[in-house]
Amino acid sequence: MKRLFILTLVVLMTAGIASFALAAGNGAGITNSPHDFSATIPTLNGEICRICHSPHDHHVTAQNYLEGLLWNHTMSSATYTMYDNTMTGTQFLDGAVDAQPTGTAKMCLACHDGTVAVDSYENHAGGTYVLPTYAEIPGFADGANRDLRGTHPISIVYDDVADGWLKPVTAPMGGSGTIGDVLENNKVQCMSCHDVHDAPIEAISGTPLLRVTDAGSAICLACHVK
Hints:
Elements: H1 2-19, E1 80-81, H2 104-112, E2 140-142, E3 145-147, E4 156-157, E5 187-188, H3 190-193, H4 218-221
Parallel strand pairs: 1-3
Antiparallel strand pairs: 2-3, 4-5
C-alpha cells in the first residue's frame, strides 16, 4: 500500500509539472492558458488570478503589492547583466537601457528567471512547482548575475527616431493595436511581444502567448525593418 501511495504521488507530481510544459496558448483567455495553474497548484483552491494578483495585501511582510497591479507573487531578488552597447564595442542600441529590469518585466522574471518557484506567492513559501529549464529567461548566469545578454533587450526605450531600422510607433502590432500600445512608458518589455493573459484577439493561438505569429518571423518584422 505504501509503495502504491508513493507511486500515485509521483504520478500526480509529474502530471503537475508536465502541465507547466504547455508553452503554447490557445488565444482564448486566461482559463486553460499556460498561466492557468488553478488545477495544478493545490494552495490556489481553484483560483486563477490569485497566483499573480490579489485585491487585498493579506498582511504579507514582503508587500509585493508595492510593485503595482495588486501584485501577489514573490519577486526575484536576482541582479541581471543587461543587453547593452558594451557587447561589441560599438554603438548598436539607440534606445537607453535601464540598469536593471523595470516595470512589468520584473513581474515576468519573478517566475521566469528560475530563482523563484511558481507556487511562491502571497504567504506560501512554495518550492514544489518549478518551470522547465527551457522556460527560464535567462538561461545562463554571469557570475552572480542572471545574464540577459542572450535575450531580446527589455527595459529599453523604443527609439524609432534615432533608429531608422525600427518601424514607427504607429505601425500595427497584431490585434493589440499599434507598437505604441504595447510599449510601457515607451519601453520594450516582455509584454510588448507576449500577452500574458492569452487574451482573445491579442494573443495568437498555438504560440507562446505572442501578439503576432512567429510564422515567417512576423513577430520580429512587426517592429524591425529588415
